[in-house]
Design goal:
Elements lengths: L1 H22 L3 H18 L9 H20 L22 H14 L3 H12 L4 H8 L3 H22 E5 L5 E6 L8
Antiparallel strand pairs: 1-2
Helix pairs in contact: 1-2, 1-3, 2-3, 5-7, 6-7
């Protein structure tokens, strides 16, 4: 078991610490959570049934600790109307879907303005494509095309960045970065 823990530490120490620090504003709290995660890993390593799922298991522990921290801190993020700051204020739930959403924030920011606005208004402000056409002065088919192009561009960026594993409902259950130097993550 000591070898397993050493291997886990060697492989996950730095990326897990960075993962936590990205999501916790206070450095001391981030360090506390990091320590709690490794204590839980140490105490529960024998419950891991499939060694191939170790990364998902470890990050699940980390996400749960982060979520507990946010619950304790009563941090509530709310969605707002489309603005340049909207991406920075997306709701943060620590599932793989939300983890990938962090990368999507960067991807959305890099879209041309017309596609960025179309995605944010339809996907995050939840306006219909018809309402988008009215707001932008586009025809309905033009608005639909713009949303589809924006989705296509995001999908292409995401596929360039990561390999995703989905459950039967389309939720992300695991992912693997294709390139450690991804410009989005």
């Amino acid at each position: 078991m000591a070898d397993n823990i050493k291997h886990i530490w060697d492989e996950f120490n730095i990326p897990l610490n960075q993962f936590i620090k990205k999501r916790i504003p206070n450095e001391q709290d981030a360090e506390d959570i990091f320590q709690e995660v490794f204590i839980k890993i140490y105490n529960h390593i024998e419950t891991l049934k499939d060694g191939n799922k170790m990364r998902a298991w470890i990050y699940s522990i980390a996400r749960n600790e982060i979520a507990d921290y946010h619950r304790r801190s009563h941090i509530i993020l709310r969605k707002q109307e489309y603005s340049d700051n909207m991406i920075a204020e997306m709701d943060e739930d620590m599932t793989f879907n939300r983890e990938i959403a962090q990368c999507l924030k960067v991807m959305i920011n890099r879209l041309p303005e017309k596609y960025k606005a179309a995605i944010l208004l339809t996907e995050y402000r939840h306006i219909t494509q018809k309402e988008l056409s009215e707001k932008t002065g586009l025809s309905l088919s033009g608005a639909k095309s713009r949303v589809q192009r924006a989705r296509y561009k995001l999908k292409a960026s995401l596929q360039e960045c990561c390999e995703l594993e989905f459950d039967r409902r389309g939720n992300i259950i695991n992912y693997k970065e294709k390139n450690k130097e991804c410009k989005y993550c």
